[in-house]
Amino acid sequence: MLTLYSSDHRLHHGVELKDGAISDSFEKPQRAETVLARVESTGLGDVVLPKSYDRTSYIGAHSERYIDFLASAWDEWTATGRSCQALPLVWPVRGLPSAELPQTIDGKLGFFSMDAGSPINVGTWTAVCSSANTALTGMDALGESARAAFALCRPPGHHAGREYMGGYCYLNNAAIAAQHGLNRGARRVAILDIDFHHGNGTQDIFYDRSDVLFVSIHGEPGVSYPYFAGYATERGAGAGEGFNLNLPLPKGTAMNEYEAALHHAGSAIMRHAPDALVISLGVDTFEHDPISHFRLRTPDYLRIGEIIAGFDVPTLFVMEGGYMVDEIGINAVNVLLGFEGRN
Ligand code: OKP
Ligand code: ZN
Predict the structure, then answer these.
(1) Which of 76, 139, 237, 291 lies deepest, with the highest CB count within 10 Å?
(2) Mean per-residue pLDDT, 151-169
């Protein structure tokens, strides 16, 4: 399987508000480097650089004004005399009356975010574009008739909505790749999100559309981030009704129950008969993940890959979360090896 990877992800390294104190983000460069090292040591296949794409390739999944905001946020922030990372501090929650776009960067940061989990630094936009381009190049590989490809994206993308960042995410790499597949002739695409956290951003982007089926298996929102999306009752709207499938599972879920959910997801995906399948591949479902609450074990990831291969759809794997840095490489690549029948 071909892997797409750019070291430009290193240009982004952020802070995180953790237990009330500012510290180093769990979402750090070493994550992608550990996965790359495992791709190489297992001989998964060639590793190639992503191509470049212009900003128009991100539109469709995102609005133009959101992309403009991301591209200029660092300059607007530093123009106010600040040199630390940019973080939002105020949000337009229920009950606040204005939907007007603010004119200054402090207002824009809140307007275009769901939480304070996506800091903006000097290299963030370059890294974010390279991550999206990695996913786009992976979709192009499927278009050139590869059976599968692995977009080793960083930063992740699935919490980023049409007009907001959050949860370490800026551009929604999986959604951008899915839209690109449609632009290049796919009639229908499915996205299966197996990150521990609900892919609220991907759901947001395709909620009213029937050409993209979104399926997510995740920790139940009553007790798991992102808390405000991911219930089974969210089934899509308008033309998209029935094309959004949430499969929330309780804390402590292990492979038995997880596997049942994965088969359920598989039936929905095969019914959709997509020309391409995008997997939002998070391995924070691991038993020792520091921020999540499922109990999957290392060999379970081989089985997950094997089950996904059984859906028999050209498949693009897009890297999302996974914060147990020592094991993220082994677990993520196990999914790919399992998919290829190397288990
Ligand atoms: C990103 B991805 C929980 C804090 C949650 C944000 C988590 C973002 C996860 N104690 N902070 O889905 O892996
Ligand atoms: Zn996650």
Answers:
(1) 139
(2) 99
Residue 332 corresponds to which amino acid? A
Q: How does the average pLDDT of the chain come out, rounded?
A: 98
- Ligand 1, atom 8: closest residue by C-alpha: 167
258: helix, strand or coil: helix
| Ligand 1 atom nearest 167 alpha carbon | 8
Cα distance between the two ends of the chain: 15
CA of 218 to the centre of ligand 2 (A): 9
Q: Is residue 219 within 8 Å of residue 292, measured between CB atoms? A: yes
Question: Which residue is closest in CA terms to ligand 1's atom 9?
Answer: 167
**CATH ID of 2-52+126-339, from 3.90.960.10, 3.40.800.20, 1.10.3210.10, 3.40.190.10:** 3.40.800.20
ipTM, 2 decimals?
0.94
Ligand lying closest to the C-alpha of residue 285: 2
The residue to which tokens 């929650």 are assigned: 93
pLDDT, one tens digit per residue, over 84-115 is 999 999 999 999 999 999 999 999 999 999 99
Q: Is the CB of 291 under 6 A from ligand 1?
A: yes
Atom of ligand 1 nearest to the CA of 323: 13
